[in-house]
Amino acid sequence: MATRPPGPKGLPLVGNSREYAKDPFAFLSAVGDAYPRIAQFDLGPLSTYMVTDPADIERVLVSEADQYHKLVFGDAVDDLLGDGLLLSDGKQWRDQRNLANPAFTASRVQSIADTMARIAEEHIAGWSDGDELAMDIELAKLTVKVIVAAMFGVEADDETVETVQNNLEPLGRRFEPDPRRVLVPEWAPTKENREFADAVETLEGVIDDLLAQREGTIESGPTAVSEDETNRTGASGEEGEEPMDLASILLRARDRGEQSEKQLRDELMTMLLAGHDTTALALSYTLYLLSEQPEARERHLAEVDEVVGTDQPSAAHVRKLEYTDRVLSESMRLYPPVYAIFREPQVDVKLGGYRVPAESAVMVPQWVVHRSERYWDEPDQFDPSRWEPEPRADRPRFAYFPFGGGPRHCIGKQFANLEAKLVLAALGKRFSMEYVGPELELRGSLTMHPKEPLTMRVSEREN
């Protein structure tokens, strides 16, 4: 067996990290085009194997998943998310996943649909015809409110939402690819490191404040947030039942001695950040694409009118929003918020006909696979018809994997899909949107963000 796949040549010490940092999306696309199935390159000192064949991706994420661990780059992400579900491994990850699962069952997710829709309608109530809004920021504020209500069992006030938003930028900058970072210790008191540490400390304070609100209400419902809306925050709606929001589940586990204070905070920090950011991005790119495709936009709005009308969107409505579902899937194909997954093999493995050594980096890039002409006709075109049953059935399973796959697939997949469709319906009831910002450019961090705000002009619809 050959020991090293082909790939782009890099420079001493830094490898290909300068090209990657300059534009990770262009770099990954070029590598994927030049080296189908597998390629090897160096990101600084890290030997990286990029895998783009769906059969090999299935091995990494599903059938041979026990041979891989999550790959963590440096101490910064560990400082931020600690031992939450996103980073933990082995028995700790399994225990935490099993503990969190009840907060994400299909029935529980469906039960909080009204809360999601209510928050969406309240958030956009102040928008007016002709407003030009940084839509990615507006949607991030909205999804913070939803995740706090659904997973913490309390309502986030405007000050909390602003605090979260104001501290996301220094976090995002810390995880943008930068070859100079390997030369600077993470403990060094640089401006970037200080701002990152301050942001982490502030967000930990937000978690503490939210937990303080939830303490004392975790044993039996309904939540005390509202006397006239028993299911207002997605907690249990029946008197005497235990609330099943994630914070309540973890607090009860802590009180039984099954969860440390650190584990509890790590899990809730992961949920607060990852649980709102990816959905906000998926919605932002969906609205951008609909703005660029008037025919698809009008078809989506017509479906919202027919299915939802003037009602508040509900889970029952969502099940009938078939075209909206295809639009969302196509948006996440073109602009997957998580654009690459990294794993670290614990033993030597075989991928793409090559030996991949233990403790190297295996990259599985949604950005490349989702846009590959090997699996998609005219892959750069926005085409929701790809998601009709017949063409969908002909594609390899892992030609599309915005939520990962296998045992470590995103625990919030159902939650995020339902929330996104409810928000699209709530927006579509009232507004049509036109993108008025500069040409879309992307920047890489832990997730894929626009370089500039996605500014949109909202136009009130006549119903």
What features would you describe in this structure?
By secondary structure, the protein is of the alpha+beta class. It contains 19 helices and 12 strands. It has a 5-stranded mixed beta sheet with strand order 1-2-8-5-3. A 3-stranded antiparallel beta sheet has the order 4-12-9. The chain has a two-stranded antiparallel ribbon with strand order 6-7. A hairpin with a 2-residue loop joins strand 6 and strand 7. The radius of gyration is 22 Å and the shape is globular.
Describe, in short, the structure shown.
The protein is 48% helix and 11% strand. It has 463 residues and is an alpha+beta fold.
Which descriptors apply to this entry?
five-stranded mixed sheet; alpha+beta; 12 strands; 463 residues
Topology:
Blueprint lengths: L16 H6 L1 H11 L3 E6 L2 E6 L2 H10 L4 E3 L3 H8 L8 H11 L5 H6 L1 H12 L7 E3 H18 L5 H9 L1 H7 L16 H24 L31 H10 L5 H32 L1 H14 L7 H4 L3 H13 L6 E5 L3 E3 L2 E3 L4 E4 L1 H4 L19 H5 L19 H18 E5 L6 E3 L3 E3 L4 E6 L3
Parallel strand pairs: 2-8
Antiparallel strand pairs: 1-2, 3-5, 4-12, 5-8, 6-7, 9-12, 10-11
